[in-house]
Amino acid sequence: MDKRFVYADNAATTPVSQAVVDAMMPCFTDAWGNPSSIHQKGRQAAELLRGARQSVAQSLGCRAEEIYFTSSGSEADSWAVKGAAFYMRRRLGRRRIVTSTIEHHAVLNACAALEREGFEVIRVGVDEMGCVRMDELAAAVNTDTALVAVMYANNEIGTLQPVAQIARIAHEAGALMFTDAVQAVGAVPINLESLPVDMLSLSGHKIHAPKGVGALFIRRGVSIDNLIDGGGQERRRRGGTENVAFAVALARALADAVEALPDMERVVELRDRLIRSLCAIPYSRLNGDPHNRLPGNCNISFSCIEGESMLLWLDMAGICASTGSACSSDSLDPSHVLLAIGVPHEQAHGSLRLSISHETTEEDVSYILEQVPAIVERLRAMSPLWENGHPVQTKQETECKVKYAIQ
Q: Residue 342: left (phi > 0), alpha (psi -120 to 50), or beta?
């Protein structure tokens, strides 16, 4: 059967762009030397690495010496959290980590590991839109706080956090501030010259670079312990021969993403069209802030639907989507993010995350809006929890939590 193909899972990963592939190729065919070697092949690789670092810094508004290449966003997250915690405990005796309940598991699990090392971890709650409760955070940060770690944008519901305000609260207490910006980089403008964070992480495969490369920004003057010891690479902060090809790929992908930021206005329009139309389906709700969210993020829960079943039907229709974080795709538990914002357990199981990009067209959105309502209706017709157009248990329609007017 002929069908369209629509990729709407960019929050999980993105296709590697041809421009990025072209930028990488010389590293495999000609400039394949070890950048630590002093001979001509080593110098050639070192120059490419230097240029990549400078390009990433320019895209983020910081200094080249503040950028450290990693194998992933998760490595960057773990390095920032653990490195800061151990350094601040060793130098200042601080043992408290303040984070949020909706962080990526790369941060949550790093914090859990620190608890086993004797640290105190305070997990601050969020409101129904997914925004950190600032009064609770301010109360949690004290003179024993080593680090405040709050993500820039949530990977599931897209809500943007007041990172600058959180950083100021951390700094007033003498603590460091780290933000996981894996979803935000390339989607919203970020200028580290004015954003007062001490550390920031990003990942290549969210912006059309390959999987297996990320970066950690560490502001000049900020000290943290190493996560990977070894040789003198990355200015003695991360051991291991640098992946020059992937560093070049990340630099090119990030430069292209920053250049394309003005097109995000069009992506927002497509996102809002998805939200308006899908929230018109009875017994649906938007998850996350309706306005203060990532340009391409649309996360909606449908009552009496199993998200996995919906994904299978969408896949058969040629639409790639997800129910939440790709890192939790093998788990049958409902999303910790949705539960944190107050979505009932049964509705959390029926969530659909559509994450669109510059490559998404009006025709793609039209096709999604043609398929999703029909699939929801089909699955509800087979559900024992659905009867005569209503959930069996409630028989009361819940309002879609969105402030858009249905056009």
A: left
**What CA–CA distances, in Å, run from 373 to 271, 277, 332, 368?**
16, 9, 24, 9
C-alpha–C-alpha distance, residues 326 and 206, integer Å: 12
* Residues catalogued as catalytic: 327
Token duo for residue 401: 């939590």
**Residues with Cβ < 8 Å from 319, sequence gap 6 or more?**
4, 6, 8, 367, 368, 371
320 and 184 fall within a common domain: no
- Name which of 101, 99, 111 is nearest 340 in CA terms: 101
| One-letter amino acid of 29 | T
Asked, for residue 254, whether it belongs to a domain, the answer is yes
Cβ-based neighbour number of residue 295 at 10 Å: 23
- Phi and psi torsions of 399, nearest 5°: -70, 140
In terms of domains, do 191 and 61 share one?
yes
Comparing 101-110, 155-164, 264-273, 324-333, the range with the smallest average pLDDT is 324-333
Report the amino acid identity of residue 349: H
Binning pLDDT at 50, 70 and 90, where does residue 3 land?
confident
